[in-house]
């Protein structure tokens, strides 16, 4: 049975993550990091490209599943003719090596179980050499070594280059499997006790979730989204990946398939705001510090994204042996958009550092000098066309959002110098830049006949990013141009009430064939814009609609197809969950939740 994008749940250890299907199969896992090559790649091909399934013999999808309380421990339950069984899946936060723990627990009756482990290193292309050692199954190929053991030990046997198992569990019985990776040149790491690891994982997640200071409406959705953001954090550096997957399609059968296992600067302000508002100051500081390290250097070398540790080279490659999710090819690793000129990122970095300063994060002595250097570069380049927020692969344009973010950069510098006049900087210089950008955008980026801001200068196309104009303070929410833009985007870019980024019909602004789904974070932006302009009930209705699009364990992909009723794009998507958190908190305040409850 083919698993859809929304059929997957996430487990992880804050350095990598796996996707577990409703059928009990782990179809995606990169070891040892988010951006490493996958050893289970069935998600982008088929079972021959690697997976690990444990389920009742002959069974299909589980009867029900959920995360245990406020944690990342997944429980999947099958009710069969002979009994009921539960599988508990999680990844302990690692000491030295990554582990996946799968505990099979009998609930009632007696259930025959079947397991199949098919390891395929290097994105499903390399079949490892398998051997037995001290009660383990050991797979080795090149730099990778994986050990599998069970407690109590069950019989395993080789079949069609897979490791299979067959066993029975009765009510009250438990069988635990542990899969451990380590570099093949090193000794096997210490063994993990699966049951102690489960207790510790639950304790860790419960303690972390309890730190969330938001207690208002939608708390369940907010906490689940925050747990997802935490799971997408690369703990050694504080970087947050956009998603743990690559090449999940924005259109089924299409070519818009990209690698999102990197850290985007465009996400920085909204992510920082969500973490700060919910009381996660340590995570916010770690993200801020990652940002400062990543962008250090010449302002002219600023990139739109970086690797988990701030790596700059992310070459894009196509993996021709993988057919793609539901035939959506090519499958790509790396991301060629890393070399694009996107002027809005300068504004986003400066805005993030301004937010960190004004929110009371411990200061970083070099942060202000960096902001001045970035702003000085932007001052000389903001008049140029760029590829824009959406990383178009068509010709450069004067994107309105990019210009608005240039205004944000100058505005935040002015605000900082006004609040702290002893800081180094020429406040009048930045005021002049701010005024000049503002005047040009209002003259060249606004269509007075339609009463809306457009995607780029001289274009008739619209862009959902213009919904951010009141949120960043470029114009007040009650400005007629803002209200006109909200109405225009709502009318022209929405499909069944959900918002697309821009139109992919007609002349291709992004240089790519085909279309895409509704972009979920844009729909959250519409809810925010409606709220800001006093249309709170409409905002609340849209937010409730978006909550209903989450899968059964509360996860969102990047996009949604309203016609097919399917999630699309890389999954789960950090930007979608950041949008959910920020909209929930803002709506709670608008609906009258106490300030200490609303975040």
Q: Quick gist of this model?
A:
The chain is α+β, with helices and mostly antiparallel strands. It has 15 helices and 28 strands.
Topology (SSEs and partners):
Blueprint (H helix, E strand, L loop, with lengths): L7 E5 L4 E5 L3 E6 L7 E3 L10 E6 L7 E4 L6 E6 L3 E8 L8 E20 L2 H4 L4 E5 L2 E6 L2 E8 L4 E4 L2 E9 L3 E10 L10 H17 L8 H13 L1 E2 L4 E2 L22 E2 L3 H10 L3 H15 L9 E2 L10 E2 L13 E2 L10 H15 L8 H15 L18 H20 L7 H18 L1 E2 L4 E2 L15 H4 L7 H13 L1 E2 L2 E2 L18 E2 H13 L3 H12 L11 E3 L4 E3 L5 H17 L4 H4 L1
Antiparallel strand pairs: 1-2, 2-3, 3-4, 3-5, 5-9, 6-7, 7-8, 8-9, 9-14, 9-15, 10-11, 11-12, 12-15, 13-14, 16-17, 18-19, 20-21, 22-23, 24-25, 26-27, 27-28
Helix pairs in contact: 3-14, 4-5, 4-6, 4-14, 5-6, 6-7, 6-8, 7-8, 8-9, 12-13, 12-14, 13-14
Question: What would the keywords be for this entry?
Answer:
599 residues, alpha+beta, 15-stranded antiparallel β-sheet, three-stranded antiparallel β-sheet, 15 helices
Describe this structure as you would to a colleague.
With 599 residues, this protein is an alpha+beta fold. 32% of the residues lie in helices and 22% in strands. The protein is built from 15 helices and 28 strands. A hairpin with an 8-residue loop joins β8 (83-90) and β9. The longest helix has 20 residues, at 400-419. The two termini are 42 Å apart. The mean pLDDT is 95.
Give the terminus-to-terminus CA distance.
Answer: 42 Å
Shape: globular
Instruction: Please estimate the helix content.
Output: 25-40%
Tell me the major beta sheet.
Answer: 15 strands, antiparallel
> What is the averaged pLDDT score?
95
SS content category: alpha+beta
Uncertain segments: none
**Total DSSP helices:** 15
Beta-strand proportion = 15-25%
Radius of gyration: 25 Å
């Amino acid at each position: 049975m083919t698993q859809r994008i929304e059929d997957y749940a996430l487990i992880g250890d804050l350095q990598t993550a796996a996707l577990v299907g409703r059928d009990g199969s782990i179809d995606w896992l990169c070891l040892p990091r988010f951006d490493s090559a996958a050893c289970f790649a069935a998600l982008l091909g088929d079972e021959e490209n690697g997976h690990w399934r444990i389920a009742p013999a002959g069974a299909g999808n589980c009867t029900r599943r959920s995360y245990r309380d406020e944690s990342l421990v997944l429980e999947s339950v099958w009710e069969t003719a002979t009994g009921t069984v539960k599988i508990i899946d999680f990844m302990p936060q690692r000491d030295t090596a990554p582990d996946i723990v799968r505990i099979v627990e009998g609930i009632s009756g007696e259930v025959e179980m079947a397991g199949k482990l098919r390891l395929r290193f290097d994105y499903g292309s390399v079949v490892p050499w398998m051997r037995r050692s001290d009660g383990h199954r050991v797979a080795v190929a090149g730099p990778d070594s994986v050990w599998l053991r069970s407690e109590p030990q069950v019989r395993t046997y080789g079949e069609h280059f897979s490791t299979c198992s067959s066993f029975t569990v009765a009510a009250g019985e438990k069988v635990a499997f542990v899969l451990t990776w380590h570099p093949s040149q090193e000794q096997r790491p210490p063994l993990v006790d699966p049951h102690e690891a489960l207790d510790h994982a639950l304790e860790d997640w419960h303690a972390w979730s309890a730190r969330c200071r938001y207690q208002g409406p939608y708390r369940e959705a907010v906490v689940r989204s925050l747990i997802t953001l935490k799971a997408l954090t690369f703990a050694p550096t504080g970087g947050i990946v956009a998603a743990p997957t690559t090449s999940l399609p924005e259109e089924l059968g299409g070519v818009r398939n990209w690698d999102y296992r990197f850290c985007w600067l465009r996400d920085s302000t909204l992510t920082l705001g969500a973490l700060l508002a919910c009381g996660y100051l340590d995570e916010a500081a770690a993200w801020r510090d990652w940002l400062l390290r990543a962008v250090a250097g010449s302002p002219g070398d600023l990139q739109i994204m970086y690797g988990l540790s701030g790596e700059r080279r992310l070459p894009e490659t196509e993996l021709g042996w993988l057919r793609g999710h539901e035939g959506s090819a090519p499958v790509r690793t790396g991301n060629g958009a890393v070399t694009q000129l996107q002027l809005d990122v300068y504004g986003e970095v400066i805005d993030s550092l301004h937010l960190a300063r004004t929110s009371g994060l411990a200061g970083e002595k070099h942060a202000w000098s960096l902001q001045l250097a970035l702003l000085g570069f932007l001052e000389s380049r903001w008049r140029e066309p760029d590829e824009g927020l959406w990383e178009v692969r068509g010709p450069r344009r004067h994107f309105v959002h990019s210009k608005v973010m240039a205004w944000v950069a100058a505005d935040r510098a002015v605000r900082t110098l006004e609040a702290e006049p002893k800081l180094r900087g020429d406040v009048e210089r930045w005021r002049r830049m701010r005024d000049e950008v503002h005047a040009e955008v209002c003259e060249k980026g606004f269509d007075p006949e339609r009463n809306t801001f457009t995607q780029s200068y001289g274009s008739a196309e619209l862009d959902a990013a213009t919904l951010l104009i009141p949120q960043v303070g470029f114009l007040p929410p009650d400005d007629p141009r803002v209200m006109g833009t909200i109405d225009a985007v709502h009318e022209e870019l929405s499909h069944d009430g959900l918002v697309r980024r821009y139109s992919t019909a007609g002349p291709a602004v992004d240089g790519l064939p085909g279309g895409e789904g509704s972009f979920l974070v844009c729909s959250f932006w519409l809810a925010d814009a409606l709220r800001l302009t006093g249309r709170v009930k409409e905002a609340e209705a849209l937010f409730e609609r978006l909550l209903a699009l989450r899968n059964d364990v509360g996860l969102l992909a990047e996009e949604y197809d309203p016609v097919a009723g399917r999630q699309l794009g890389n999954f789960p998507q950090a930007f979608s969950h950041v949008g959910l958190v920020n909209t929930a908190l803002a709506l709670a305040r608008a609906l009258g939740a106490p300030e200490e409850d609303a975040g």
